[in-house]
Amino acid sequence: MATTNLSGQTAKSFKSLAKKRFAIVVSEWNDSVTEALYSGAYQTLRDYGVPKDHIIRRNVPGSFELSLGAQYMAEKKDIDAVICLGCVIQGETRHFEFICNAVADGITNVGLKFNKPVIFGVLTPDTQQQALDRAGGKHGNKGDEAAVTAIKMLGEFTS
């Protein structure tokens, strides 16, 4: 199956973006991947004019904890969008399915609960190499894409 590299996509420039505040919640598990995702997201936000002090990073132990980490950040009135970055690699057990489903549902629910963009930037590859290919490799950087998604959501639905 072909994979589309969307890392080159752009978001419209918004006058008020420099005033927006972003939280990036990063899973410490699979850190060789999640650190690359974070670098992509952070740099994209900076490239669009978000000041350094308007980007708040918080770490959580694993992808399962991203939902609660996102909720802690989303409940803050001064946070406009939350970007969740993680990586769950398929293993030999069904653990992968349970974690991926729980994380997707949790992150979705946080966004709905707080009525603000909470972005799912969690890789769910079959192998470590597939993860690296999506964290700055041949398929771009999905952290970059997550940041662009947050920017677009803020521009389309908020003032």
Overall pLDDT metric: 89
Largest sheet: 4 strands, parallel
Strand order of the largest sheet: 2-1-3-4
CATH structural fold name: Rossmann fold
Shape verdict: globular
Rounded to an integer in angstroms, the radius of gyration calculated over CA atoms is: 15 Å
How many runs of DSSP E, i.e. beta strands?
6
CATH superfamily: Lumazine/riboflavin synthase
- Percent of residues in beta strands: 15-25%
Uncertain residue ranges: 1-6
Distance between the termini: 39 Å
Any idea how many domains? Answer: 1
Structural class: alpha/beta
CATH class: Alpha Beta
Helix content: 40-55%
Architecture per CATH nomenclature, i.e. the level-2 architecture: 3-Layer(aba) Sandwich
Please write the string of helix (H) and strand (E) elements. Answer: EHEHEHEHEEH
Number of helices: 5
Q: Overview of this structure, please?
A:
The protein is of the alpha/beta class and about 160 residues long. The chain has a single domain (about 15-155), classed as 3-Layer(aba) Sandwich (Rossmann fold), CATH 3.40.50.960. It is built from five helices and six strands, in the order βαβαβαβαββα. It has a four-stranded parallel sheet, sandwiched between helices. Helix 1 links the parallel strand 1 and strand 2 (about 55-60). Helix 1 crosses helix 5 (about 140-155) and helix 2 runs parallel beside helix 3. The longest helix is centred in the middle third of the chain and has 20 residues, at about 95-115. The N and C termini lie far apart (about 40 Å).
